[in-house]
Amino acid sequence: MPQQVRGVVARAKGAPVEVVPIVIPDPGPGEVVVAIAACGVCHTDLHYREGGINDEFPFLLGHEAAGVVESVGAGVDSVAVGDFVVLNWRAVCGQCRACKRGRPQYCFDTHNATQKMTLEDGTELTPALGIGAFADKTLVHAGQCTKVDPSADPAVVGLLGCGVMAGLGAAVNTGGVTRGDSVAVIGCGGVGDAAIMGARLAGANKIIAVDRDPRKLEWATDLGATHTINGAEVDAVEAIQELTGGFGADVVIDAVGRPETWKQAFYARDLAGTVVLVGVPTPEMTLEMPLIDFFSRGGSLKSSWYGDCLPERDFPMLVDLYQQGRLPLEKFVTERIALDQVEKAFETMHRGEVLRSVVVL
Ligand SMILES: NC(=O)c1ccc[n+]([C@@H]2O[C@H](COP(=O)([O-])OP(=O)(O)OC[C@H]3O[C@@H](n4cnc5c(N)ncnc54)[C@H](O)[C@@H]3O)[C@@H](O)[C@H]2O)c1
Ligand SMILES: [Zn+2]
Ligand SMILES: [Zn+2]
């Protein structure tokens, strides 16, 4: 029997989100219904609300979540009723040209639930990143559920489902940060701070945080930055060079995603160094630079989708490190809120007052 639960829906571009009844179908083949325990508020939810992702309103928002499997459809054997899972937006297909070449982190055909969740009147909902977890329950593909240690706090480990994984993976997977590296991170929100935490985990010996907000620089230090630069007060490129013997950092991560921050990342790295773009630019942004600079500086210029993570490989490992006290994931949870406070959380996020607000159900 389809069931009716509460969900946070964005009906139209720019309109405040609303908590409304939504209808969850029984899981079909390969699908799973998950009872959500917690879901973080990510910048991408706001992008959806503002029409910045696509026009497929109404959206069911929320995508950084953990919960418990309530029911499974035919053929599901990777998870069972009662399993504690973190949801992901990279259920790899195993069949596309990326998967077949052994690079599933680039999978071009990731799985989502086939059936649609709807409003009461039958209007189909578009779940954010194929998840839609600002809701009592949601319907996903079984591959979007990764089992982790059930004793972990869902508000904390749910954050691995998007921003924290994206930032940590940008450093560790995409950037290949290793011991002894110097690393600079531009933009110290949830994603940038997770990159800082990842750089420390990987053994970087110099971790430089750049932001324009002094409060963000304090949090970055708490998560492992060894040096901080206020980009509103000094030239970030010169400051990074000064801190690295005049050369620049081995890996520079742009966790803002604007032409000016990417250029800073490009010029603030050492010769043959690596730039990782993990912040998401908007379609109208462009870049004009001397081509010779690309050639003469060598190295690699990369972008990082979801931190090049593989949920099955990475989530359980990171939860273990958190449980052992070796990864301070709990520091990303700035506040715990109710389902009807998502709109307010967007404002708090906009003012830069949080790393993450987390809806707890
Ligand atoms: N690649 C992915 O898979 C992925 C996944 C999740 C989020 N993201 C993206 O990562 C980006 C960051 O997300 P977030 O949740 O950390 O956002 P956020 O708003 O919490 O953080 C952005 C930070 O950048 C700082 N900043 C802004 N302009 C700056 C500048 N010119 N110089 C220095 N610092 C500046 C802000 O003060 C803030 O601290 C967003 O674009 C988001 O969409 C990417
Ligand atoms: Zn694939
Ligand atoms: Zn997100």
Structure explained in plain terms:
It is an enzyme of class 1 (oxidoreductase). Its EC number is 1.1.1.306. Its cofactor is Zn(2+). Pfam families: ADH_N, ADH_zinc_N. This protein is of the alpha/beta class and about 350 residues long. It has two domains: about 5-160 and about 330-360, Quinone Oxidoreductase, Chain A, domain 1 (Alpha-Beta Complex), CATH 3.90.180.10; about 165-305, Rossmann fold. It is about 25% helix and about 25% strand. It contains eleven helices and 18 strands. The chain has helices at about 45-50, 95-100, 155, 165-175, 190-200, 215-220, 235-245, 260-265, 290-295, 310-325, 340-350; strands spanning about 5-10, 20-25, 30-40, 60, 65-70, 85, 120, 125, 135-140, 145, 180-185, 205-210, 225-230, 250-255, 270-275, 300-305, 335, 355-360. α9 links the parallel β15 and β16. α4 runs parallel beside α5. The radius of gyration is 20 Å and the shape is globular. The mean pLDDT is about 95. The structure holds nicotinamide-adenine-dinucleotide and zinc ion (2 copies). One zinc ion (ZN) binds near residues 42 and 44.
CATH architecture verdict of the largest domain: Alpha-Beta Complex
Give the low-confidence spans. Answer: none
Instruction: Give the name of the CATH superfamily of the largest domain.
Output: Medium-chain alcohol dehydrogenases, catalytic domain
Class inferred from helices and paired strands: alpha/beta
Shape: globular
Question: For the record, what CATH class of the largest domain applies?
Answer: Alpha Beta
Helix content: 25-40%
Note the total helix count.
Answer: 11
Order of helices and strands: EEEHEEEHEEEEHHEHEHEHEHEHEHEHE
In total, the number of domains comes to: 2
- Main sheet overview: 7 strands, mixed
Strand content: 25-35%
- Average the pLDDT over all residues and give the rounded result: 97
Q: Find the CATH topology of the largest domain.
A: Quinone Oxidoreductase, Chain A, domain 1
Radius of gyration (Å): 20 Å
Bound molecule kinds, no repeats: nicotinamide-adenine-dinucleotide, zinc ion
Distance from first to last alpha carbon: 23 Å
Tally of DSSP β-strands: 18
